[in-house]
Give the backbone structure.
Amino acid sequence: MPRPRKRHNKGIALIVTLTIITLLVTISLELNRQIRAAVTDSAVFRDRVTMKHMLRSGINIAEAILIRDKQDTEVDSIQEDWANQEKIESYLSQLPFDEGDLSINISDELSRIQVNALVVFPEGRAFNEPQQKLWYRFIELMLSQQEESNESFFSEPIEPASIINPVKDWLDSEDDDAITGLSGAEDDYYQDLDPSYSCRNGPIRHINELLRIKNITPELFYSAEEALPGIENYMTVYGMEEASTGFAYPGKININTADAPVIAGILPVGQEFLAPEIVTYREEKESEEYIHELTDPNWYKQVPGCSDLEIESDLITTQSDIFRIECMAELNDMAMAARVIVERKKEGEGGKWICRELSWRFL
């Protein structure tokens, strides 16, 4: 009997030993996994912090370029350093980042249609007539382009007024009892939706708010096709100016920087085809130097075929102090991007020029 008991004890000891070894291996593997995960998380956190610093540096560079530009000239155009990617890259090359890449794009925010200028503020009740005409021509152009690119895009033709009137009702204040035209929409319309929400009855705060307005579909806003940009690319909520009565949205578009669809909107009816010619004229070079001056707001009359063209003076300018800075940082197969809207202004009376950040959004 003693011998079998001894063998039995040895078997139990072996099982206990194997169990302990298995537990130790399992614990070691789990600890190794946790350590590797912690190291990876630390590296990711380090890289994210680094990229945030890279973005901040890039934004500062862009703001410095814009301030220097303001000190040199009052006119803003696509012919200046802030719109020249090669010049921007030369500035970025001076930043002391040993690893990673940083890119910046600066665009004039007032090259876009200012949505809040559709209504006369601060009263905020009546149409701004020059802007109403601009909207009509622009929306008509966008609708026609999207219809041509996709015959099934709309189940039935849409009139520009069916877009413009609801936007006006969304913006106008103290007017919930009267819709604009037959296609407008006041608070009652939005309260009947599921889910329901209230009509703004005031200036739009973010461009995506347009998607909450009657008849502005995602297809119209974003575009159904990648090659055909939606209206979001050509509109902005910025452009407010201080006025004696509070605030106003003049809505003037910088003809020196606006894209062709926006320029088509400011041209008289039937003259929209001249927009590409105006854009080409701005960009003409000889020996890498621009050959046309863009200081006079009426320079467009020098464009071939435009000598008799008359653009409403209330619609155009050659100056801007509001810009969009888009910055992207890339590091170790990671990327981080930000969009910042800045306003150039003087710091106090007679002070130095600064860039005040109106909006900062990670993309």
